[in-house]
Amino acid sequence: MSESEHIYDITVIGGGPIGMFTAFYAGMRQLDTLVVESLPELGGQVSTLYPEKIIRDIAGFAEIKGAELITALHKQMTIFPDFAPTIATNEEVTTIAKDADIFTLTTSKGQYKTRSIVVAIGGGSFAPRKLAIDYDQALENQRIFYFVKNVAAFAGKTVAIAGGGDSAIDWALTLENVAKKVYLIHRRDQFRGLESSVQRLQQSRIELMTPYLIDGVTDSAADLTLDLKQVKGDQHVQLDVDALLVNYGFTADSRALRQWGLPLEHRLLKVDTNMETSIPGIYGLGDCITYPGKVKLIAAGFGEAPTAVNAIALNLYPERRQPLHSTQLEH
Ligand SMILES: Cc1cc2nc3c(=O)[nH]c(=O)nc-3n(C[C@H](O)[C@H](O)[C@H](O)COP(=O)(O)OP(=O)(O)OC[C@H]3O[C@@H](n4cnc5c(N)ncnc54)[C@H](O)[C@@H]3O)c2cc1C
Questions:
Q1: Which whole-number Å values give the CA distances from 1 to 4, 6, 7, 10, 98, in the listed order?
Q2: Are residues 117 and 163 in the same domain?
Q3: How much helix, strand and coil, in percent to the nearest 5, is found in the chain?
Q4: 284 CB less than 6 Å from ligand 1?
Q5: Strand 282-284 with 117-119, pairing
C-alpha cells in the first residue's frame, strides 16, 4: 500500500516530549501511529531550547539533563518493534481536512490519512532565527548551517559559530575537538551560558570574536568570508572560514491552531476530560491545550497522553479491552 493510501490509527502532530510519550503509549496499545515533526530532530523545546539544562520535576528522576530525557523517550518510543511509530521529521503539518471519519493531513512534503489526530505542537512550529543579512540561500546546509546533523562533517575545518547562548557555547566546545579552528562570534563581551560552560570556553582554544556582528558573507571557491562589524564601533574584520554555524535561537509560530480552524480558548486548544476537542477525533496534549487547572509542565503532558490514547483506542477498537498495567502485556 502506498503512503497516500495508508490510514494511520493516530497521527501525532509535534514530536516534542509529549508527542514522543504519546507515540510510545499508542504503540503499547498496538495502534498504528505516525509522528510528524517540523524540525529535523525530535524533542521539542527540550532539545531546541535547553538540552543541557538539568530537569528536576520528572517523576522518578531526581535530576535528568534535557538531552538525556529525549534520548530516553526515543528509546521508550521504539521499544515495541511491531508497533514503533512511523516518524516523519523536517515536515510541517499545514492543513487538516476531514472526510467522513478519515482526516487528511497536508504537510510541507505530502499528505497522510489518519483516523484520529493528537495535536501536540507546544508553543508552535519552531524555526531557527536566521542571519539578518542578505546572503545566497544556496549556501544553507553547504557552508551556512543552522543545525548540526553530523559533527564529523566539520572535521579538520575552520568553523565560525555565531551566538552567545548555551547552544552556541556547547557547539563551540564540541567542535573544538574535531575542527581545525573554531571562532565564536558574539555581539556582547559576556556570554549567556552555564557558568561551568563559560569557564570551559575561556580555558579553551576557541578564538572569541566580541563584540562583533556579522555584516556580510561572501562565498568563493576557497572560503566563506565573513565581514564582522564591531558593535558600537566602525572597525571591520574579515574572517575566512570553511563553515558558519548560526545559533541565534528559535522562533515559534503558533498561528497553526487558528489556521486549522480548531476550537480555541485564549489561543490554546480547548479540550474535555478525554483531551478531545469539540471536533470528534481531534485531541490535544501538552503545552498547546487548555482545560481548568492545566499546567504547562512535562509531567502534566505525560499524564494527559494515556487519557487521550485510551479514549482513542476505545473509540477505534471498542471490542478491545481497556488497558491493564504495562507489565501485564506479555500475559
Ligand atoms: C527554558 C525552558 C525551561 C523549561 N524547564 C522545564 C522544566 O524544568 N520542567 C518542565 O516540566 N517543563 C519545563 N519547561 C516546559 C516544557 O519544556 C514544556 O512544557 C514541554 O516542552 C511541552 O512539550 P510539548 O511536547 O507539549 O511541546 P514542545 O516541546 O513545544 O514540542 C512541540 C513540537 O511540535 C512541533 N511542531 C509545531 N508545529 C508543528 C507543525 N505544524 N507540524 C509539525 N510539527 C510541529 C515543534 O517543532 C516542536 O518540536 C521549560 C521550558 C523552557 C522554555
A1: 8, 6, 10, 18, 21
A2: no
A3: 25, 30, 45
A4: no
A5: parallel
Domain termination residue (choose one: 248, 274, 298): 248
Q: Is the CB of 16 under 6 A from ligand 1?
A: yes
Q: Which of 142, 118, 165 is closest to 15 using CA atoms?
A: 118
Indicate if 167 and 220 belong to the same structural domain: yes
Tell whether ligand 1 has an atom less than 6 A from the beta carbon of residue 39.
Answer: yes
- Is the domain of 307 the same as that of 211? no
In a domain, 1, yes or no: no
Choice from 45, 52, 68, 250 to test ligand 1 binding pocket (greatest atom count within 8 A of CB):
45
DSSP 172: H
Query: Cis before residue 211, ω within 30 degrees of 0?
Result: yes
**pLDDT digits 0-9 by tens, 199-227:** 999 999 999 999 999 999 999 988 999 99
| One domain, residues 170 and 111 | no
Instruction: List, for residues 262-311, the tens digit of each pLDDT value.
Output: 999 988 999 999 999 999 999 999 999 999 999 999 999 999 999 999 99
* Ligand 1 atom nearest to 285, measured from its CA: 26
